[in-house]
Specification:
binds (3S)-3-amino-4-(1H-indol-3-yl)butanoic acid; zinc; binds zinc ion; 5-stranded mixed beta sheet; about 850 residues; 27 helices; aminopeptidase; protease; Zincin-like fold; hydrolase; Neutral Protease, domain 2; Immunoglobulin-like; metalloprotease
Length: about 850
């Protein structure tokens, strides 16, 4: 496979002035005609006329009305073209009914839909399929289907056809078409400047009752983007479509967002609070792309973080504004540590702006998205809120309608602030999670913090230069009062000292408040100090972090030294839980423990070989001890968590239910499932039903309810995904593979559907002790299924290789078993480019 490099970028030799497409929709033989107005690009040197095209049957091509015979390869075509402007016309035939890769034009439950990002448009017609080629599009769709949609505004229609016109120039990856038997949940929105917009959420008949929440989320997003970023919507209509077979969460096609149905359909009976919150965030994310991604797009795919990092940052701000900012920040950091840190510290490490790839689909990663968003958060902290707002205004004004780079992005900040961001830019080019070591000194009223940064080597980057690390610090006095408010230290050197003068007593530092940078803080401190911060820190993130550090410390001690659980942790958590002034959602987070995979990573970093069974056992023991220690408090907390109002998936109610569920998990360990059975019986929403079912399974008493749950929900595919996933995630280590195998034999295990595949095999990989069971059966089961899925859907297969990325942490026997599976996958004849790249990077 060929490798593409950032350094090799050159502009395309031609500009596209307009694109006119017609689709004659037939399941196995759809005809696509394209009329594309090209003219030479004055900025380009190379005039090779190459159009991408894959899996297309060329029926005919003309230039300015004359038949031409282009030279075809399996990547596309080349052709001799006139020196000046010309009209290219082509007709191709494609087979959407047999497109199982879910890229290009495909069919899902009888409905036509498209997925073009990143390089799917070339499976629809011959085109310069690169994001820096932007054009307006007119699309005519012929077909015998009740609803036929494309980007932009409806512009014409006749018997059996409709036409859509998108006035905004866009790259081909934002093209979309949907056609099928769909029903709309409709609404209207009036923009700040008074433009009326028709809003439609299109779903399959039967799903109409799951649309209201998504529509409200869309309207909130539209208003928020006007109020916070001054961004208005720019078409007469905004369509969202729910599709069952979809590789990722959703896609921001201009004016026609396409969503995995799991990422948009919601009802209290069938969706959990977590589902509602995720849906709200994804709807916002895709909507926000209208400006950060669509109006201003990426010059090339190396700049992916330009749109994704910024849009994740914007959707996090939105969720923080609508819900609880500290809860959102803590949840984001939990997620970053669970998904991005392993990537940044393993064989798949790559910079936020990668410098090469074989298959771009493999770079839609936690690093590009979530670390990309963290980088923007740091920039905002460093320049301040006012300068950030000014820089964003300048970005939109200067670059509207352009395909941009990270250089363009940073330049607006430099122009607004006068700051040199050359060193800051290393966040985009250096992979790996920086570590910050802390030393303290106290003498005569002066407290000195010395910070030392280092970033470990990553693939292709043995040496790292110091980065700009914003470290938010506050100081607490011995009685718990804050003696210095949060101050932002800018760590730019490898080693740097910061002094705080005029203090009456040695303070306790609260470092990296709000998780002000995506780094690992190396700080040897005492249990007393952590307990002190857990009791007194005024920064909600660091207060939670102190509890987390205590939990981690006690778990590592239990695993490595066989020590019993730390009383300071148990007492500290108890005090926090007693504090009724604290948000229930926050208290629920306080009851969480570090993930088992995260514990394995920490053990490995500290020179131990993680034993997944010992980790699992320690977590079980600590949970049991917590249940016993908190026993007297639990009934009161459970009562406090009750909601006496009709179901609403808002922060207040869902926070209570989160606390209730965490408390039920502990009570369950004492009463052996009695309360869980009661709760299951009276649950009137999916959040409560699923939490009670989970507790029953954990107590070994869920068989009856599990069967009843299936009978109740067998016609709802999204709920049945949960039913599959729950059983695998909650299986005991020795049973996990058995449960997963059993479920893969279930009649409803439609493995070609990415959601169902992930429900079982994704859950297997997430069950740390089960996946890493000493038998190696978890590894071979995942490999078997990856091999089966690869010819059908390479994109989802490649993403599902990621669980193997941590393999070098484990003992020699496990490493050998994983290597064997990686080699078996690599040796499969005809393995896709996607999976080949992932396996070879993981294998190293
Ligand atoms: N921009 C989109 C990323 C994407 C995608 C979405 C669905 C299916 C395949 C895809 N490939 C890339 C989603 C987003 O970040 O908003
Ligand atoms: Zn996105």
């Amino acid at each position: 496979p060929t490798t593409v490099y950032l350094k090799d970028y050159t502009p395309f030799g031609y500009l596209v002035d307009s694109v006119s497409l017609t689709f004659d929709l037939v399941p196995n033989a759809t005809r696509v005609t394209a009329r594309i107005a090209f003219r030479p690009n004055p900025e380009a040197q190379d005039r090779t006329f190459f159009l991408h095209g894959e899996g297309l049957k060329l029926i005919g091509a003309q230039i300015d009305g004359q038949d031409v015979k282009p030279e075809l390869t399996d990547q596309g075509l080349t052709c001799d073209v006139p020196d000046g402007p010309f009209l290219w016309e082509s007709e191709v035939e494609i087979d959407p009914a047999n497109n199982t890769a879910l890229e290009g034009l495909y069919m899902s439950n009888g409905m036509y839909c498209t997925q073009c990002e990143a390089e799917g448009f070339r499976k629809i017609t011959f085109y310069p399929d690169r994001p820096d080629v932007m054009s307006t599009f007119t699309v005519r769709i012929y077909g015998d289907l009740p609803v036929m949609l494309s980007n932009g505004n409806p512009s014409d229609s006749g018997d059996g056809w409709v036409e859509w016109t998108d006035p905004w120039p866009k790259p081909a990856y934002l093209f979309a078409l949907v056609a099928g038997d769909l029903v709309a949940h409709s609404d209207r929105f009036t923009t700040a400047s008074g433009q009326e917009v028709d809003l439609n959420l299109w779903v399959r008949p039967g799903d109409e009752h799951k649309c209201a929440f998504g529509m409200e989320a869309l309207k909130k997003s539209m208003r928020w983007d006007e109020e916070v970023y001054g961004r208005e919507y720019d078409l007469d209509v905004f369509n969202i479509v729910a599709v069952d077979d979809f590789n990722m969460g959703a896609m921001e096609n201009k004016g026609l967002n396409i969503f995995n149905s799991a990422a948009v359909l919601a009802s209290p009976d069938t969706s959990t609070d977590g589902n509602f919150e995720r849906i709200e965030a994804i709807i916002a994310h895709e909507y926000f792309h209208n400006w950060t991604g669509n109006r201003i797009t990426c010059r090339d795919w190396f700049q992916l973080c330009l749109k994704e990092g910024l849009t994740v940052f914007r959707d996090s701000q939105f969720t923080s504004d609508l819900r609880s900012a500290p809860v959102k920040r803590i949840s984001d950091v939990i997620d970053l540590r669970a998904r991005q840190f392993p990537e940044d510290n393993g064989p798949l490490a790559h910079p936020v702006r990668p410098e090469s790839f074989q298959e771009i689909n493999n770079f839609y990663t936690a690093t590009v998205y979530e670390k990309g968003a963290e980088v923007i958060g740091m920039l905002k902290r460093l320049v301040g809120d006012a300068a950030y707002a000014e820089a964003l205004d300048l970005y939109f004004a200067r670059h509207d309608g352009q395909a941009c780079t990270i250089e363009d992005w940073l330049k607006v900040f430099e122009d607004v602030t006068g700051r040199d961001l050359a060193q800051f830019k290393r966040w985009y080019s250096q992979a790996g999670t920086p570590r910050v070591a802390v030393e303290e000194r106290w003498a005569e009223g002066t407290y000195t913090l010395t910070l030392t940064q280092s970033t470990p080597p990553t693939p292709d980057q043995p040496d790292k230069a110091p980065q700009v690390i914003p470290v938010a610090v506050g100081l607490l006095g011995p009685n718990g009062d804050e003696v210095r408010e949060t101050q932002l230290l800018e760590l730019t050197e490898e080693r740097q000292s910061f002094t705080f003068e005029g203090l009456a007593a040695k303070p306790v530092p609260s470092i990296l408040r709000g998780f002000s940078a995506p780094v690992i803080l190396d700080r040897e401190t005492t249990t007393e100090e952590r307990a002190f911060l857990l009791a007194h820190d005024t920064d909600p993130f660091n207060r939670w972090e102190a509890g987390r550090a205590l939990a981690q410390h006690t778990l590592l001690d239990m695993i490595v030294n066989g020590t019993p659980p730390e009383p300071a942790y148990l007492d500290g958590i108890q005090s926090v839980l007693r504090d009724e002034a604290l948000d229930p959602a926050y208290r629920a987070l306080m009851l969480g423990l570090p993930g088992q995979s995260e514990l394995a990573a920490t053990l490995h970093e500290r020179g131990h070989t993680p034993d997944p069974m010992a980790i699992w056992q320690a977590v079980e023991t600590l949970r049991q001890t917590m249940a016993e220690h908190l026993q007297d408090l639990l009934p009161r907390l459970h009562a406090e968590a009750q909601v006496d109002a009709p179901y609403r998936p808002d922060a207040e109610q869902s926070g209570k239910r989160a606390l209730g569920s965490a408390v039920l998990g502990l009570i369950n360990r004492i009463d052996g499932g009695v309360l869980a059975a009661e709760e299951y019986g009276k649950a009137d929403n999916m959040t409560l039903q699923l939490s009670a079912l989970g507790a029953l399974i954990r107590a070994g008493k869920g068989a009856g309810q599990l069967a009843a749950f299936y009978d109740q929900w067998k016609d709802d595919r999204l709920v049945i995904d949960k039913w599959f996933g729950l059983q695998v995630s909650l299986a005991e280590p020795a049973d996990t593979v058995k449960v997963a195998v059993h479920l893969t034999r279930h009649d409803d295990f439609n493995w070609k559907n990415p959601n169902r595949f992930r429900a079982v095999l994704g859950a297997l990989a997430m069950n740390h002790a089960g996946f890493h069971h000493e038998s190696g059966a978890g590894y071979s089961l995942l490999a078997d299924w990856l091999l089966r899925l690869d010819p059908v859907n390479p994109q989802t297969t490649a993403r599902m290789c990621a669980p193997f990325q941590t393999w070098k942490r484990y003992d020699a026997k496990r490493q050998e078993m994983i290597a064997e599976q990686l080699d078996r996958i690599a040796a499969a004849p005809g393995l896709s480019r996607d999976t080949t790249e992932m396996i070879s990077r993981i294998r190293g």
